[in-house]
Amino acid sequence: MEKTDVYQLEIKRKRTMAILMKRLLDIVLSIIGIIIALPIMLVVGLCIKWEDRGPVLFIQTRTGKEGQPFSIYKFRSMKVRNEEALKEEHIYDWESGVPDTFVFKQTDEIDPNVTKVGAFIRKTSLDELPQLFNVLLGNMSMIGPRPEIPAITTHYNEQQKQRLLVKPGITGWAQVNGRSDVTNGEKMDMDYYYIQNQSMTLDIAILWKTIQVVLTSKGAV
């Protein structure tokens, strides 16, 4: 076997080990997270139900790794609304990819459709806790680019599709460096950085910084 072949096999082995280690870490952290957060999730669920008697969870289709759709779980933070009306809010006609200036969330605007409980759990990121089950199921990771809705990802150009090379995460490099306060172009650049430099060390650093960012309630993950 030539040295080049040995080198390529070694690279492949290291990549496989890195993927397995990341998955193992995801399973361990998601189980620990679910156990610790279970009392909080029960209280949040009861508060949501008590406010308007609507469903506790908001389940939405997002785009996962390699463009595969999956159902993401969040605590419902908005009033119960017609599904068709929600779809009409996210109709885009971009032809050359998602514009760099695009911002999906406007954090300085008060949405009248957000409930009182919803406003609190959004500010504290408690609405994201059910995604620990997404991680345990394997369609998300603890760390990775945030999953977008298909209405946006279907417009990705070839470069933007790089975001879909890895599993989406509950938190990521972009979220701890601006969260929802950044433009699409800035977010993309940070996601590219993560994909090109991902490592266990970087993942741990992002997890630690996520805790700090959430505690300051800056923006929304």
From TrEMBL:
Family: Belongs to the bacterial sugar transferase family.
Transmembrane parts of this sequence: 24-46
Keywords: Membrane, Transferase, Transmembrane, Transmembrane helix
One Pfam family hit: Bac_transf
Species of the source: Listeria booriae
All copies of domain Bacterial sugar transferase, residue ranges: 22-215
Protein name in the entry: Sugar transferase
Lineage top rank: taxon: Bacteria
